[in-house]
Amino acid sequence: QVQLVESGGDLVQPGGSLRLSCAASGIIFGVYRMGWYRQAPGKERELVARITGNGANTYYADSVKGRFTISRDNAKNTVYLQMNDLKPEDTAVYYCNAASGATAYWGQGTQLTVSS
């Protein structure tokens, strides 16, 4: 059974930092490209960042470039999203995604709220 379990969501003040984690089980973790997506109320889910299986290549949405960093620890089957200089527009439910070919899995999401 595949599970992706996100954690770390919280209420943070603008300008603050937070790290999200996503622990995977039931998959050969290093084979999967891992991504973080987010969905704000009334908006479509959007890709925030993703990282290849070996961690060599990353991609960031323009809105988070320079502020967010995606990383992974294949020994721990975990992917992280370090978020700095958070803005109110970063408020959303953040979802972890594992993808390999036509196969994709999603976590249940974790809420980030950026507000003073």
What are the key terms here?
four-stranded antiparallel beta sheet, 11 strands, mainly beta
Quaternary structure of the protein = single chain
What is the ordering of alpha helices and beta strands?
A: EEEEEEEEEEE
Largest sheet: 7 strands, mixed
| Number of helices, counting only DSSP H or I runs of 4 residues or more | 0
Q: Radius of gyration, rounded?
A: 13 Å
Backbone structural class:
mainly beta
Tell me roughly what share of residues is in helical segments.
under 10%
Please, what is the average pLDDT? 97
User: Unreliable stretches, pLDDT < 50, 5 or more residues?
Assistant: none
Kindly report how far apart the N and C termini lie.
40 Å
Number-wise, the strands total 11
Strand residue content: over 45%
What would you call the shape?
globular
Task: Give a nutshell description of this structure.
The chain has strands spanning 3-7, 11-12, 18-25, 33-39, 46-51, 58-60, 68-73, 78-83, 92-100, 103-106, 110-114. It is mainly beta and 116 residues long.
